[in-house]
């Protein structure tokens, strides 16, 4: 059976977040990394999420990548499409949310879609078109100082209108609160009036469910992962999706286990402390890495000796004062790249030494590891901690992977992740 839903996500961890949400809704989901090759076999799944890295690319690149992903998903037989971006609507007046939406609408020959980044579970709500992050307007939140996509206007109707040729409308809270019939009626009225893109207010999960119910006839949906909450139920009602249990099934992968940490977030530092207490660990000194090529080999020699007895931890993570001192010596980007390259080399060496279960902490670090290991896609399993699922790579020699961005996961995340990937 062909997949039902084809998703295009503008970054890696956002893709995983959406995939995790769909699996929780009972859809077997696969995440593909980058635009798939034309002749890539369509994996057996109800939903496919193509993870791009297009959030802050030049507009033309983001549009081209998104269109290529759409084409592949259309050829794979998907019947509904989802453009996933961040729940804080990360973009600039140039894009990329507006231009990508315009291009996907043109390719799908549709003149109406919605834009709904609301995700109440993570504090992202929309009221009267204004996006809130927790108790603050988006424009008062730390997102106003984001280095790449500073968000200084919380009114999503204005924000999106500056990025798109379409007319941007608002489906008001009162309509959403009145339920899905009211939302559907409003969508029909907007379509009849010439279409465009509608920002949709949503404050509670139940609003996302009633909006979700009204999305049955839209070929394209755009938003955060929250809006995917109501989709699996639509497919069940349409008779497209039968299974409710077993969507999160992934095969057990026998082999040695290791944890690689490159995130310096407070959560990751706590997780490292907890895991170190009862597992062998190796802390990499970035300053040594800068002038000594042999650190990676040294780590691997150490690890090869330890892994037969149980999981090991390799980390570069340090508290913020130490990181600042290292960045002053090496440069911020240079230090990051040097450590990511080392982590990538260590991951490759560990796999060559029989490691088949790998936990990686850090968004950029995960990206570096996945690309070093040539992972083309992931089957998404059960959630380990909010937003982080266990996964298994789709390749001939599968690896179990838990990839988490810095601040995710409880203090015992590493042990919990390894237990979830037996
Ligand atoms: P997060 O998800 O917490 O943002 P990332 O992996 O995305 O984690 O980013 C962390 C960055 O910090 C990476 O580029 C990593 O290489 C770098 N890094 C890790 N340890 C150190 C350190 N001790 N000093 C400087 N930079 C570091």
Q: Which structural class should the secondary elements be placed in?
A: alpha/beta
Low-confidence stretches: none
Count of discrete alpha- or pi-helical segments spanning 4 or more residues? 15
- What is the topology, as strand order, of the major beta sheet? 9-10-5-11-4-1-3-2-16-17-18-15-12-14-13
Q: Tell me the CATH architecture of the largest domain.
A: 3-Layer(aba) Sandwich
Sheet with the most strands? 15 strands, mixed
Helical coverage, percent range: 25-40%
CATH class of the largest domain: Alpha Beta
Total tally of structural domains: 2
Architecture overview:
The structure is a single chain. Helices cover 38% and strands 21% of the residues. It is α/β, with parallel strands linked by helices and 422 residues long. The protein folds into two domains: 5-237, Putative sugar-binding, N-terminal domain (Rossmann fold), CATH 3.40.50; 256-420, Molybdenum Cofactor Biosythetic Enzyme, Chain A, CATH 3.40.980.20. The strands form two sheets. Strands 9-10-5-11-4-1-3-2-16-17-18-15-12-14-13 form a 15-stranded mixed sheet, with helices on both faces. Helix 2 packs parallel to helix 3 (97-107), helix 11 (295-306) runs parallel beside helix 13 (332-352) and helix 13 (332-352) packs across helix 14. The longest helix has 21 residues, at 332-352. It is globular. The model has no long low-confidence stretch (mean pLDDT 95). Adenosine-5'-diphosphate (ADP) binds next to helix 12, helix 13 and helix 14. Adenosine-5'-diphosphate binds next to helix 12, helix 13 and helix 14.
